[in-house]
Amino acid sequence: MAFIKSLVLIIAIMALLSSMSLAFDPSPLQDFCVAVDDSKNAVFVNGKFCKDPKLVVADDFFKSGLDMPGNTSNKLGSAVTARNVDNLPGLNTLGISLARIDYAPYGLNPPHTHPRGTEVLAVLEGTLYVGFVLSNPGPNMKNKLFTKILHPGDVFVFPIGLIHFQFNVGKTKAVAFAGLSSQNPGVITIANAVFGSDPPINDDVLAKAFQIDKKVVDYLQSQFWWDNN
């Protein structure tokens, strides 16, 4: 019964996103697309090349596994199981994708952004504290934070490109499904990107940006930054 309810929520999310998708995915589907004069050397065409329609099969539109919990035994206590164009090729050009997110008690899906997609989150189990931060505040304004406590059946929207997070505030596990308005929304986890980039960002830059001592920057850059996506 619980899984049937989950499927109903997922279908509702995907139906909503299908109406939203035309507004986004005609724009870039990857971080960059370097032009080449010789098509023989091309690898991507702002996304993926298309399969010959005569060779398409039903399995191109099928992927199982979202009924299985993700492994939350990590530093963050969360796991994201994504279904996007990289593992479900039938999504190519359709402008939608999906993810299951599992949270251990007090598990966190840390502050991150999806540069190419709006996210709609539906809670199936547990209690989540969620929020996002606005960009470009006006003069003498701080970036405004919007937060909400979500329970099973609740839905919350994270606008495209804005920093957002989810935190399990309950003593039991939590499960949510997210729909995104892109076949390849991308994800930038803030702490990982800033302190775990390859190669590292110059510590003078980060020390000045965060107004902290360089030794603190060096310590943060030396840590292992867990990627739960």
TrEMBL record:
The keyword Hydrolase does not apply. Keywords: Apoplast, Disulfide bond, Manganese, Metal-binding, Secreted, Signal. Residues 1-23 form the signal peptide. Pfam families: Cupin_1. It is found in: Secreted, Extracellular space, Apoplast. Its main location: secreted. SMART domains: Cupin_1. InterPro entries: Cupin_1 (IPR006045), Germin (IPR001929), Germin_Mn-BS (IPR019780), RmlC-like_jellyroll (IPR014710), RmlC_Cupin_sf (IPR011051). Transmembrane segments: none annotated. The keyword Disulfide bond applies. Residues 64-218 form the Cupin type-1 domain. Belongs to the germin family. This is Germin-like protein. It comes from Datura stramonium (Jimsonweed).
